[in-house]
Amino acid sequence: MAGINKKLFSHLNVEDNDPVWEKFSRVEFSKKNIFTDNRAYLVEDGLIRKYYILTTPDIDTEISADFYFPGDIFTVGENGSDGIYESLNSGLAWEITLEEVKEMFTVNPQCRFVQNYYLSRKLSAAMKREMLLLKNTPQDLYEYLLRNKPHFIQNIPLKYLASYIGITPISLSRIRKRIL
Question: Is 18 left (phi over 0), alpha (psi -120 to 50) or beta?
Fold first, then answer.
């Protein structure tokens, strides 16, 4: 069985021979797979969507919050407390329990660097997304994605992209017609 594509995760600055790599388990997933709670995942292939369910008296609505592509890391807390993580296609990830991650932090100082790197990237991305949502129109957000994250436009189904921007698929279709 092949191991983790360490080059894909080189931005983590973990040496190729570091024993941390051996702690991850291979997870092949299919479309619509829901990822297990209390785990951290390295995405090697495929596309993952994080979403929340907004419940109203009339209907439950899924709100897309984030997307994870090859080379990304995501963690799933207890009982979906951080939302629901679902695959949008088939792929491959590597998982480790959050308990094992905590143990590694106490043993390996390099793991703290990875944690700090991951958390700082997540915080920066969350702050940027918040500002984009607060200061821009949906059309501005779509144009931002076109310029800065074209892989979103190319790979994410439009209904999820619309939810991510905060509009309906019909509104997104109108924006796309105006731009093109």
Answer: beta
Name the residue among 85, 53, 45, 82 with its Cα closest to residue 67.
Answer: 85
- The helix/strand count (H/E) of the chain reads as 6, 7
How wide is the angle at C-alpha 80 spanned by C-alphas 77 and 81, nearest 5°? 70
Distance of CA 177 to the CA centre of its chain: 28
Cα distance between residue 145 and residue 81, in whole Å: 27
* 32-62 tens-digit pLDDT: 999 999 999 999 999 999 999 988 888 888 9
Report pTM: 0.89
